[in-house]
């Protein structure tokens, strides 16, 4: 049955206008993005198939490569371009909110940004957030990119980057493509080395955030920061 044949209050677009976007499921939101389905397949069902193709994860969907995305029947380069535009708009909006507010008063915003940026990546990525003395965001940048299981991080390069942006403090983050939200011994050792290296130039490492799938974990909250 086509969506146009559904009761009005069950159609995704009408439901959004009546109850707000937060009332829709992931598949319903994607259906509005897709606009149309395929012969015998509604836009909502096509959206469900798209989610299933990426493990039921919006983060993995937004991190999809064009070839992987286009393997789903009925989806091509034009839809992929639209999806990447939606992702970039969302990330820019979150980054703008970070720049407008106090980072320490908006940790949820920082985590949301990192989930968007790192949650679905299929290789390890290490990011830095440089902060002013007032803890306002100066710059957010990907510093190191690695393999499926490792990204080599050099404390000296992080120090150079922090000084280049006149940072008073830094938050770092990396992802685990495996989905394991558990810091490794190497993660903890690296955090200690980064703290020590930055301290030599009087820059504080405020937190190291681990991202796995749609979840985040704070080393500071676990007491791993020294």
Q: What is the element string, with H for helices and E for strands? A: HHHHHHHEEHEHEE
Q: Give a quick account of the main beta sheet: strands, pairing sense, barrel closure.
A: 5 strands, mixed
Q: Characterize the overall form.
A: elongated
| Total number of helices | 9
The number of E-state strands comes to 5
Strands side by side in the biggest sheet: 2-1-3-4-5
Tell me the β content.
15-25%
Chain oligomer state? single chain
Distance between the termini: 59 Å
Rg of Cα set: 20 Å
Structural class: alpha+beta
Low-confidence stretches: none
Q: What is the average of the pLDDT values?
A: 84
Residue share in helix: 40-55%
What does this structure look like?
The chain is an alpha+beta fold and 226 residues long. The protein has nine helices and five strands. α9 links the parallel β3 (169-175) and β4. The mean pLDDT is 84.
Give a summary of the structure in a few sentences:
Helix content is 44%, strand content 16%. The protein has helices at 12-19, 26-34, 43-53, 58-62, 66-70, 77-100, 107-118, 155-164, 185-199, and strands at 125-131, 137-145, 169-175, 204-212, 215-218.
